[in-house]
Design goal:
Helix content is 78%, strand content 1%. It is mostly helical. The protein has a domain at 158-383: MetI-like (MetI-like fold, Orthogonal Bundle). Helix 5 (69-97) runs antiparallel to helix 6 (103-137) and helix 12 packs across helix 14 (285-314).
């Protein structure tokens, strides 16, 4: 698209901007890249003083654990294919096969299927095929690499259990925050009530408080919940302390004002004429909201949902204080791996666990990147 001369940036400014963004990307990506490399090496290579030994893994290679050039090419091809499918094909498939009223469910199913397909192809289907080809052709390993630390973390240390606990908390926080946020945000955007607006502002101020303050306030209620609920539920009254429901309640309380504020801004950018046209055609307020407004709002809902997802997924303080060991989520579990007295092998396994939790985030960004960009743009422009 042509840019007018008045808006065209000087070459020096464009070069400086590009250099700054490139430098920032390198600084931000380097820690993730480096711990990923460490996680697939034996401890002798992972903690070597020479960066070249960490990268190429001579000790790992000497132990008979490495990749051939064919393995490297296949791995890069799988990564490229996954990214291409996520960004190019998944949006088309969701639009074609998903009914408009369950579009969010279609995106979630697509992300889950894509992630499962990547795991099956990369760790179940391709390895035996490549091993057979390498053996038949006599291809030598050129890069030290092993996945034994991931197997130890997920299978031997049962990290999959922490993953399921994280999904319970994260999906619960996201579902409740979006359900309440869309209804409240729509009501605030259309009502114009000054009182409700200032109540929301006050709630946002409370959200800025340290999370430890809110946890301290809720803690006595959760510990004594069985006694408090016994007059209503009888002997079936549960103790909420240590259970995922307690964490979900606290994180929703922290997140809800921000969710309502974001969604209110998105609803403000949708003309009220759409509501009026739907009412003229015979829709009730709720029908207009569900069938006319929400399909237009999906980019904003997905963007807001991503923020809610990240809050629950990355939380450490609330989950570490309120959950018992059997219900512990991934982030506190990883902190426990690092804090205990361990061998170098245990430390590399902890690094592998830390790398593992980044994979779902990359998958979400790849699948929802169009909606995220569209939602952030819509939320930044006043309609």
């Amino acid at each position: 698209m042509a840019v007018s001369r008045a808006l065209r940036q000087p070459l020096s400014l464009r070069v400086i901007s590009a250099a700054f963004l490139t430098l920032w990307c390198l600084i931000a990506a380097f820690p993730i890249f480096w711990i990923t490399v460490m996680s697939v090496k034996l401890p002798l290579d992972a903690f070597a003083s020479s960066p070249w030994e960490v990268l190429f893994g001579p000790a790992t290679l000497a132990a008979g654990k490495g990749l051939t050039l064919l393995d490297i090419a296949a791995s890069l091809g799988l990564l490229w294919a996954t990214a291409w499918v996520a960004m190019r094909r998944v949006p088309l498939w969701v639009a074609r096969f998903t009914p408009p009223n369950v579009i969010a469910l279609g995106w979630l199913v697509a992300a889950a299927v894509l992630g499962l397909g990547f795991v099956l192809m990369g760790f179940v289907i391709l390895p035996p095929i490549l091993t057979w080809i390498n053996s038949a052709l006599g291809l030598p390993a050129v890069l030290g690499l092993t996945t034994e630390h991931y197997r130890a973390v997920w299978v031997e240390n049962a990290f999959w259990h922490n993953f399921l606990n994280s999904m319970k908390v994260t999906l619960g926080v996201t579902a409740i925050s979006l359900t309440v946020g869309t209804l409240a945000g729509y009501a605030l955007a259309r009502s114009g009530s000054k009182l409700a607006f200032w109540i929301l502002i006050i709630a946002l101020v409370f959200r800025a408080l340290p999370h430890s303050v809110l946890v301290t306030g809720y803690l006595p209620l959760f510990i004594n919940s069985a006694a408090l609920l016994r007059p209503i539920l009888g002997d079936a009254a549960p103790t909420l302390y240590g259970q995922p429901l307690a964490v979900i309640a606290v994180l929703v309380a922290i997140n809800q004002p921000f969710t309502i504020w974001m969604l209110r801004s998105f609803f403000h950018n949708i003309p009220a004429d759409l509501d009026e046209a739907a009412r003229v055609d015979g829709c009730t307020h709720f029908q207009a909201f569900r069938w006319v407004i929400m399909p237009v709002m999906w980019p904003g809902v997905i963007t807001t949902g991503l923020f809610s997802f990240l809050l629950g997924y990355n939380d450490y303080l609330v989950t570490s204080l309120l959950l018992d060991a059997s219900n512990q989520t991934m982030v506190p579990a990883i902190a426990g791996f690092f804090n205990r007295e361990t061998t170098m092998t245990d430390q590399v396994e902890a690094i592998a666990a830390a790398v593992s939790i980044t994979a779902p985030l990359f998958l979400l960004v790849m699948v929802f990147q169009r909606q995220i960009v569209s939602g952030l743009t819509a939320g930044a422009v006043k309609g």
